[in-house]
Design goal:
Elements (H helix, E strand, L loop, with lengths): L1 H26 L42 E6 L4 H15 L5 E6 L3 H11 L5 E5 L3 H5 L7 E5 L5 E5 L5 H13 L4
Parallel strand pairs: 1-2, 2-3
Antiparallel strand pairs: 1-4, 4-5
Length: 181
């Protein structure tokens, strides 16, 4: 008889444990962006995408093996955080001379082109990943996401959110000044 009562209490006990765990997760102050990336410290995944701008060459791994660090930025015209990040990318390309490669993710090419014409185009090369297959190799969870690739083709930083001025001054520029490694 006592074991039957325990069976009735067991689901409530499990629910209380799960609620406690989820409650702790919400108030613990952990930043989901601090999870890190399995790619950091490893060679960059394959960069292969059709060119977004007519008449230009497709994106290839050669862009990542130029002997200098590059940023690879995944964006979309329908992405509001991408819109917020765009002026900073423009400044990095124009003022700081950083090489930025863009990939329009799950975005119709004509919409991505119109977006870049309207807001400015910071990319030395830009392609599109309409079906999202290349993004799977890069471990993309959404847009915007940006990767700093060093001169040897190794991923050094991964940002799962819009790049902020603090990211530029505290993390990106110091790595670039040190040669990207």
């Amino acid at each position: 008889m006592k074991s039957n009562r325990f069976l009735y209490v067991l689901p409530l006990l499990m629910l209380a444990i799960l609620a406690g765990f989820f409650g702790w997760s919400l108030v613990s102050g952990r930043d989901p962006a601090s999870i890190g990336s399995a790619l950091v410290g490893r060679p960059a995944p394959t960069l292969k995408a059709p060119a977004l701008r007519p008449g230009e060459a497709a994106l290839t791994d050669a862009l990542l093996q130029s002997g200098k660090p590059v940023l690879v930025n995944f964006f979309a015209s329908w992405c509001t955080p991408c819109l917020a990040e765009q002026p900073l990318l423009e400044r990095l390309a124009k003022k700081d001379g950083i090489t930025i490669i863009g990939v329009a993710w799950k975005n119709k090419p004509e919409e991505a082109r119109a977006w870049l014409e309207r807001l400015g185009d910071p990319f030395v090369a830009v392609g599109y990943d309409l079906d999202g297959k290349m993004a799977v190799d890069w471990g993309l969870s959404g847009v915007p996401e940006t990767f700093l690739i060093d001169a040897r083709g190794i991923v050094r930083l991964h940002f799962r959110a819009p790049i902020l001025e603090k990211d530029v001054t505290d993390r990106i520029l110091p790595l670039l000044r040190a040669g990207g490694s």
